[in-house]
Design a protein that fits this description.
Strand content: under 5%
Number of helices: 8
Distance between the termini: 36 Å
Order of helices and strands: HHHHHHHH
Oligomer: single chain
Helix content: 55-70%
């Protein structure tokens, strides 16, 4: 039987984790947009998340979902930034995500897509994160609850309330017209719940 040097095994594991991390950058960018409307701010959040993840890679548990792990780091990074900003800034800024004007839609966005994006950023940040995770990115309720550090019932309630608010803002009558979660997603393949 051939034995593998533990140092090589750890090195190979780190290489594999870094490679997976790189493949998840587009998902991180998409999730960062649920925190910040401005692309530069969202990119800064992605960079800070990657920096923290790389510094903590030894804490990642192989066989669990790296996407969930990264999204949790991003959420915590954002919450820390908010706390720091609230200590530094006096005045009435309710939420960093609301600062600044909306970016103009790119060519692939329809006018309706722009309206939906604007409406999403008018939601309470907790509602917006739940919607982005479950309805846009295809996370399960379990995964969203783990990332947001709250019970599954809270996630379901946030999504329900978010959809109701979005319907009102967009003047829609049917829930089926907006943000219905996909039936199948590749999100779950790498993880079994840590609960």
């Amino acid at each position: 039987m051939v034995t593998i040097d533990p140092v090589y095994q750890d090195y190979q594991l780190e290489i594999n984790c870094r490679a997976e991390l790189v493949t998840l950058v587009p998902a991180l960018r998409a999730f960062a947009r649920s925190f910040y409307r401005q692309p530069d701010d969202a990119d800064d959040l992605v960079q800070e998340t990657l920096k923290r993840a790389l510094g903590s890679l030894h804490q990642f548990t192989p066989g669990t979902s790296m996407k969930s792990w990264l999204f949790t780091i991003m959420r915590n990074t954002f919450n820390t930034a908010i706390k720091h900003q609230r200590r530094e800034v006096t005045g009435g800024e309710k939420d960093i995500a609301e600062n600044g004007p909306s970016r103009p839609p790119s060519q692939e966005w329809t006018m309706r897509g722009h309206e939906l994006e604007t409406a999403l950023h008018q939601l309470d940040p907790d509602f917006r994160q739940a919607v982005m995770l479950v309805c846009v990115m295809g996370a399960s309720y379990d995964e969203a609850a783990e990332i947001c550090d709250c019970p599954i019932g809270t996630i379901k309630s946030r999504i329900n309330r978010a959809k109701t608010h979005l319907l009102e803002m967009l003047g829609e009558k049917s829930r089926e017209e907006i943000l219905e979660a996909p039936q199948h997603s590749g999100w779950h393949h790498a993880s079994h719940r840590r609960h």
